[in-house]
Design goal:
Chain A: This is Aconitase X swivel domain-containing protein. The complex is a heterodimer of chains A (118) and B (373). Chain A is α/β, with parallel strands linked by helices and 118 residues long. Chain A has one domain: Phosphohistidine domain (Glucose Oxidase, domain 1). Chain A contains three helices and nine strands. Chain A has helices at 26-29, 58-67, 82-91, and strands at residues 5-8, 13-20, 36-37, 40-41, 46-49, 74-77, 95-97, 104-108, 114-116. Chain A has a seven-stranded mixed sheet with strand order 1-7-6-5-2-8-9. In chain A, α2 (58-67) runs parallel beside α3. Chain B is α/β, with parallel strands linked by helices. Chain B folds into three domains: 2-158, Aconitase, domain 3 (2-Layer Sandwich); 164-257, no CATH class; 266-370, Aconitase, domain 3 (2-Layer Sandwich). In chain B, 40% of the residues lie in helices and 17% in strands. Chain B has helices at 2-18, 36-52, 78-94, 121-131, 140-149, 177-191, 206-218, 234-240, 276-287, 302-307, 309-316, 345-355, 364-370, and strands at 23-25, 28-31, 60-63, 116-118, 151-153, 167-170, 174-175, 196-199, 202-203, 226-227, 245-248, 266-274, 296-300, 320-324, 339-342, 358-361. In chain B, the strands form five sheets. A five-stranded parallel sheet of chain B has the order 14-13-12-15-16, with helices on both faces. A four-stranded parallel sheet of chain B has the order 10-8-6-11, sandwiched between helices. In chain B, α2 crosses α3 (78-94) and α6 (177-191) packs parallel to α7 (206-218). The chains are: A alpha/beta (118), B alpha/beta (373). Chain A binds chain B through residues 7-8, 27, 32, 55-61, 63-64, 67, 80, 82-83, 85-86, 88-90, 95, and chain B through 10, 13-14, 16-18, 32-33, 38-43, 45-46, 119, 136-142, 153, 155.
Chain lengths: 118, 373
């Protein structure tokens, strides 16, 4: 079974659609009230992106989205940094390092093992 | 104490992800993300919640510029002012010194080889580069949580082996504030990341050192440069260097970011906040003159402002506004202008992006002259 490297671990297993994005800045790209990025809902989905960029206040935006119950199930990034990790910890969103090409996966949030949705 | 427990747990979790759980005790912290403009409602709510949970900082902690200055020269809407007040009162509740400056190194003597959890890239780069005091580029929220916890994740910047220079830069240049900013921007854009070991630059003033640190970290992810002969312990870093990149900077390279001034409708000096020496030179230069035709804005730290308060008040009648606690990068006031002339490369980068206002470069004293022409 393929495995993503857990960076910020969670608990349990989730299954969700994978939303693939280019590099984003949480401040500016993530709508704090709707939990949408460029009009695409990320809540209840798995957000896959290469890396995040932009303002270091970005973690507050993801925290706000999470406090409204609109957070993604997990984030998978090819490159992680202090800002993305801070955002994931604040928002309590499991974070993995790696790349997802599937459109829907089932991930074990503590180990990073995943498989394509059956 | 729910606030402290939350902060300790969050910093530990972040440390698990970035430094195999290792943390480093810090002497001071400096929090960025203070202006209501950049924080927004969501940032304010997070800070308020932490304060309501009884979080208190466990080390001396300062804060970055707010969106409104201490004497309200930079006016803002009542809604903005109310939002900004919520941030500052939460900071005070947590024990943060609401000093609102981006140059806290002016009055905090960060000694070589001491550890700090700072946010605000110019300040981090300044203490790493000119004092060999160690800080990583902590995101605003992480600096705040580390201030409460008293420790930060022990990332590479808090280890000697993580501070090895990776690039050799030759720049035998004499640098006033503008040129120091140009050099910082050029090195930043050319290298992108890593730790440059720089041979040859002569910074002619404190303002030049500040501008170099600010531009370098604005135009790249670099937050530490070793300046041969100037950075404390530079001989040690020379021995540790593991050079992978080389860069020679000539006079001509600095002109890359220069553009025609056009018709600025305001002049701005003091990003990072202006030091006393250059402020006094400017005051000397403008005192004998009549009113400036275009407004001159100068941001400085509260300490320097207090020292020149009487003159600052007198100069307001001559269209010169010296203020503390804010800056034109983070204040919505900036949006009333079309083109701002400034000696700050950091302002030239951020003012168009954050406010849609043009910013053009000029040498410090020439910027002042623009205001009279």
């Amino acid at each position: 079974m393929p495995t993503l490297k857990p960076v910020v671990r969670g608990n349990g297993v989730v299954k969700g659609e994978v939303v693939k994005m280019g590099p984003i800045s949480f401040l500016g790209d993530l709508n704090p009230d709707t939990g949408e990025i460029q009009g695409v809902r990320i809540s209840g989905k798995i957000l896959a992106l290469p890396y995040v960029r932009g303002s270091t206040v970005g973690p507050y935006v993801l925290w706000h989205v999470a406090s409204k119950g609109l957070a993604p199930l997990a984030i998978v990034a090819e490159r992680t940094d202090l800002m993305l990790i801070t955002a994931a910890v604040l928002a309590n969103v499991p974070l993995f390092q790696g790349r997802l090409d599937e459109n829907c996966v089932e991930i074990d949030l503590s180990t990073g093992r995943y498989e394509r949705c059956g | 104490m729910r606030g402290r427990e939350y902060a300790v747990e969050a910093v530990r979790k972040i440390a698990d992800a970035v430094s195999e759980g290792e943390v480093v005790e810090v002497e001071t912290a400096h929090v960025s993300g203070v202006s209501y403009l950049t924080l927004g409602e969501y940032g304010v709510r997070f800070i308020e919640q932490l304060a309501e949970w009884g979080a208190k900082v466990s080390v001396f902690t300062t804060s970055n510029p707010a969106g409104i200055d201490l004497t309200s020269i930079l006016g803002a809407s009542p809604e903005f002012a109310a939002g900004q007040r919520r941030v500052i009162s939460s900071f005070i509740k947590m024990g943060i010194s609401p000093i609102s400056t981006c140059a806290p190194y002016e009055f905090i003597k960060t000694r070589p080889r001491t550890m700090h959890a700072w946010a605000e890239s110019n300040a981090i780069t300044y203490i790493n580069t000119f004092r060999d005091a160690w800080s990583d580029k902590n995101p605003g929220p992480l600096a705040l949580l580390a201030a409460v916890a008293g420790f930060a994740p022990r990332t590479e910047m808090y280890r000697l082996e993580g501070r090895r220079p990776t690039a050799l830069v030759k720049a035998r240049l004499e640098l006033d504030a503008l040129r120091a900013g140009l050099l910082g921007a050029y090195i930043g854009e050319s290298l992108g990341s890593g730790i440059p070991y720089v041979i040859g630059p002569a910074f002619v003033s404190e303002e030049a050192r500040r501008e170099f640190a600010a531009a370098l970290s604005t135009f790249s992810s670099i937050i530490f440069a070793v300046i041969e002969g100037a950075t404390p312990n530079w001989e040690l870093y020379n021995r540790l260097a593991d050079v992978r990149d080389k860069l020679d900077v000539s006079e001509a390279d600095l002109s890359r970011y220069l553009s025609e001034a056009g018709e600025p409708d305001a002049v701005y000096i003091g990003c990072p906040h202006l030091d006393a020496e250059m402020l006094l030179r400017i005051i000397e230069m403008v005192r004998g003159r009549g009113p400036a035709k275009k407004p001159i804005y100068i941001s400085t730290s509260p300490g320097v402002y207090e020292a020149v308060r009487a003159i600052a008040e007198e100069l307001r009648e001559r269209n010169i506004y010296i203020f503390a606690g804010s800056c034109l990068v983070v204040s919505p006031y900036t949006r009333r202008f079309k083109t701002i002339a400034t000696d700050s490369l950091k302002s030239i980068y951020y003012i168009p992006r954050l406010h849609g206002v043009r910013a053009v470069p000029c040498e410090t004293l020439k910027c002042i002259d623009y205001a009279y022409s």
